[in-house]
Amino acid sequence: MGGSYAIRFACQRKRLRAAVSYYGRVPQPETEISNLYPPLLYHQAGLDQWAPAQHVDRLRAAATEYKKRVEIRTYPNAPHAFCNEQRVESYRADATTEAWEATAAFLKTCFQGL
Length: 114
Fold this sequence. Notes:
Elements: H1 2-10, E1 19-22, E2 40-45, H2 53-65, E3 70-75, H3 93-111
Parallel strand pairs: 1-2, 2-3
């Protein structure tokens, strides 16, 4: 649920500088994305049943419609919760490493010059 909360929080806080969501559900209605303030990095698990590709497509469309900075990274062979080491059946070390490196690079660009 943390990924979903990250998106919702980013749609409510004007002073937030960046947001990152790991396989969160997209708010409905998608018009909430019109209130997205900071840039958002969204990590999509390609095999996710909880936040499926259709939901992420709606995020992509809403970001385009409302001219919001949203970067979506997809991990095609990863299931939901692929970064959760406690869920042995879902954890994917390679996807986790890639997502973490992308997150660090994204946050660095958002906070440069502060």
